[in-house]
Amino acid sequence: MPKPAIEIKNVTKIFEGHTGHPVTALDNVSLTIDDNEFFTLLGPSGCGKTTLLRLIAGFEYPTQGEIVLFGESIRGLPPQQRPVNTVFQHYALFPHMTVAENVGFPLKMQGQQQDEMTRTAARMLDLVKMADFGDRMPDQLSGGQQQRVALARALAPQPKVLLLDEPLSALDLKLRQEMRVELKNLQRQTGITFVFVTHDQVEALTMSDRIAVMSMGRLQQEGTPISIYEQPVNRFVADFIGETNFIQSTIAGIESSGARCTIGPGTTLGTGATAGKGKGDAVTLAIRPEKIRLVKADGAAEGLKGRVAECIYTGTDTNYQVDLENSDVRLVVRGRNAITGETLFKVGETVVLNVAEGAARILAD
Amino acid sequence: MRLLQSTPMRRVLGLGPALGIIGFFMVVPIAIIVVFSFMKSNPYGGVNPEFSLEAYKQFLFERNLMDELVFNAAYLRIFGRSFLLALVTTALCLLIGFPTAYYMSRQPARRKNLMVFLVTIPFWTNLLIRAYCWILLLRDTGIINNYLIKWGIIDEPLTLLYTNFAIFLGLVYTHIPFMVLPIYARVEKLDFNLLEAAHDLYASRRQLMRHVILPLAAPGIIAGCLLVFVPCLGDFIIPNLLGGGKHLMIGSLIQLQFGGSRNWPFGSAAALILMSFVLIAMMIYVWGPGRKMKPEGGA
């Protein structure tokens, strides 16, 4: 079994605030990042993801715990002695150096020969499609171009791990989408472990091999994009990633495949795994809007009945808000539009909701 | 109103006051000095309105008993000494001022402002008064010697006043704010991310200083050096009061010509020669080779 690239062991980071109140940025976080992995730290601002990245880079040191890089502890090592490079959110290109000098900088610091340095810098600029810009100054480049140069500069010394601190957040949407694909390709080409910090769930889901969702300095869930999306362990993860209907309910009975939960007088819903809960427990159910299918109520259809309260057209889909019969629950349901582009249901229409088996998940907390 | 809105017109109006002040308060006096330097001196002060190159000749030559011109290096030596003095003072100010400015710029915002305020405190008191205070501190029966003897560190008073040490002390003391403030203004704007990036990209502390901080602070350093070097070159108060006027400096020389020696043309010529040296130095700075950055470029 290959050595993991980074092991974060029970790391806690407490900052002494200016006002004297210590702030806990990271609370006992443990994580393992594998070699050659595109790993994403995902969470809202202030969740500790950037702090964790800075601890790996060596800009800060953990208050407690340890970080192990390829089997070796990097405790106390300053950034210049860690085989780890960072791509900064605002690029941090040296304004007094040309693009090529910027990319050559880490090699120069390592004492490489001039001609070897020039060759490596050229190859790196080629890799990020900036080969023709070597003689420019950073302030003559657009944001996207600066981003590419920052990438080339961080990759030039061939680090074992590349840390990326929200590198796409300053770019416009179109460029961001392009760069997502390119970053992913770059990671595959170079085989370097990428640790990517973002608050953008789409970025996380599209690029990552694995994701760690963080909130309030704690690790909430760790897993592949699919498992994070399909099996959120708690309300925070379910809410932060994608859209979710939350329903407060009580477990009416345990069945072979899961549980049956009461969501209104005489109305029940079959759910997936019980997450350790038993009969009579109050639980929160989570259902993704696209896991529910609306069918016309024509007598033959069975299932939950509801009335369409609102339709929001979004192009390929329409988001329906449906009030359930015999319940005060309102669900968001995403439905594909007809091939002709029309929405399939109208406000006020009575519909039957088909909830796919296991789509309603009982959250652990 | 349309006239006011056109850009060239606005530019003239905007620049007007500045041009007026510079034109009146700088160009006119300099023009007078230029005119004076080409006239004959009047032993009772002022000038005789006759064209003469005597003042410029006097700078390099003297007349011997046979009324022949003989090369005389005395004034050149005064210039050389003054340049050396200004150069050493500038170097000392830079050595002390850069770390000070860098340290100041790395403090929390409130402490930063306090420190800038503290640096400007000496400006509140007249230079002469401060120079006399240094005399009180440095003389044989001064505060420093008194205490050193009282504490038994020395038996005989140290000769501090009227030495080169006193001159440099005084010059560095009076000019250091002019070094600290421009460097501070520059370093304070330095993006902290750049320093982290440099470390991240394997720069040691020394490499960080040499390849990132110093080049980015260069415009501030150059401005500070000019602001210290130029006034030092013409300073006569400190060399006179703390150096005891033992060695003539350019500033004192010029002052003497307008005072005791009553040789206004020579004083004017010396002032112009000094000014042209300074101008040449500044032109080298502005148009010189090897400058990749505009003074305002960079971070």
In short:
The complex is a heterodimer of chains A (365) and B (299). Helices cover 23% and strands 35% of the residues of chain A. By secondary structure, chain A is an alpha+beta fold.
How can the largest sheet of chain A be summarized? 6 strands, mixed
- CATH homology superfamily name of chain B: MetI-like
Q: Please provide the count of β strands of chain A.
A: 20
Question: What is the residue-averaged pLDDT of chain B?
Answer: 86
| Euclidean distance between termini CA atoms of chain B | 39 Å
* Shape estimate of chain B: globular
Query: What is the ordering of alpha helices and beta strands of chain B?
Result: HHEEHEEHHHHHHHHHH
Largest sheet of chain B: 2 strands, antiparallel
Strand order of the largest sheet of chain A: 6-7-8-3-9-10
Structural class category of chain B: mainly alpha
Residue stretches of chain B low in confidence (pLDDT < 50, at least 5 long) are 290-299
How many individual helices of chain A?
8
List keywords for this structure.
heterodimer, A: 365 residues, alpha+beta, Rossmann fold, OB fold (Dihydrolipoamide Acetyltransferase, E2P), 2 domains, 6-stranded mixed sheet, 5-stranded antiparallel sheet, 8 helices, 20 strands, 23% helix, B: 299 residues, mainly alpha, MetI-like fold, two-stranded antiparallel sheet, 13 helices, 4 strands, 5% strand, globular
Write the layout of secondary structure elements.
The complex is a heterodimer of chains A (365) and B (299).
Chain A (H helix, E strand, L loop, with lengths): L5 E11 L5 E12 L4 E5 L6 H9 L6 E6 L2 E2 L10 E4 L11 H11 L4 H14 L15 H13 L5 E5 L7 H18 L2 E6 L2 H7 L2 E6 L2 E6 L1 H6 L4 H6 L4 E10 L4 E6 L2 E4 L11 E6 L4 E5 L7 E10 L3 E8 L5 E7 L13 E6 L5 E2 L3
Parallel strand pairs in A: 3-8, 3-9, 6-7, 7-8
Antiparallel strand pairs in A: 1-2, 1-4, 4-5, 9-10, 11-12, 11-14, 12-13, 14-20, 15-19, 16-17, 16-19, 17-18
Helix pairs in contact in A: 2-3, 2-4, 3-4
Chain B lengths: L1 H4 L1 H31 L1 E3 L5 E5 L2 H7 E3 L5 E3 L2 H32 L3 H12 L6 H12 L4 H8 L13 H25 L3 H9 L4 H30 L2 H5 L8 H9 L5 H24 L12
Antiparallel strand pairs in B: 1-2, 3-4
